[in-house]
Amino acid sequence: MRAMNIGKATALALTVVWAAGCSTTNTTDTDTMGSDTTAPATTTQAVSDSSMSGTTMADVKNLATVFYFDFDQTQVKPEAVAALRGHAKYLADNPSASVVLEGHADERGTREYNMALGERRAQAIARVLTVNGVSSSQIELVSFGEEKPVVMGHNESSWAQNRRVELKY
């Protein structure tokens, strides 16, 4: 019994340390050819505007639920942050609500690499949500890698639509 409490306390402490370290990120990814690509740091501000939509499910339905990424990148695009803040406000105001973040990649790269890339993309979206007040217990991460393309094709247009994270309530 006491060991379980110590384990829970340790897990909580590690979660707090992880969340504190995730308020700004410098991500370095390796592309499929093995060269390093460094994404610039991303800083996300917490939700503080009470007029921001996202407090009801009806408000959330008007927000984007698919967020796209550049090739071999995990950096959340600036235009996605506003919609994610709306989702965060809804989730923070409704602690019983939860969201599944489904990470995806295009077909380039190995199956294993794309599974990991999809997971890192979902984690990047999760960081934005947690920084904006969402409890990590409300978020579930799933990576499909290249397994569930939204567009079948072997060109940049198709690949761009398959590099995404989808929010599912």
Explained architecture:
- The chain is of the alpha+beta class.
- The chain has one domain (2-168): 2-Layer Sandwich (60s Ribosomal Protein L30, Chain: A).
- The chain contains five helices and eight strands.
- It has a four-stranded mixed sheet. It has a two-stranded antiparallel sheet with strand order 1-4. Strands 2-3 form a two-stranded antiparallel sheet.
- Strand 6, helix 4 and strand 7 (139-145) form a beta-alpha-beta unit.
- Helix 3 packs across helix 4.
- It is globular.
- 29% of the residues are buried.
- The model is unreliable at 22-52 (pLDDT under 50).
Question: How would you sum up this structure in a few lines?
Answer:
The chain has five helices and eight strands.
CATH topology call: 60s Ribosomal Protein L30, Chain: A
Distance between the termini: 35 Å
CATH superfamily: OmpA-like domain
The level-1 CATH class: Alpha Beta
- Name the helix and strand elements from N-terminus to C-terminus, one letter apiece: HEEEEHEHEHEHE
Family: Belongs to the Pal lipoprotein family.
Domain OmpA-like: 56-169
Organism: Amphritea atlantica
Protein name: Peptidoglycan-associated lipoprotein
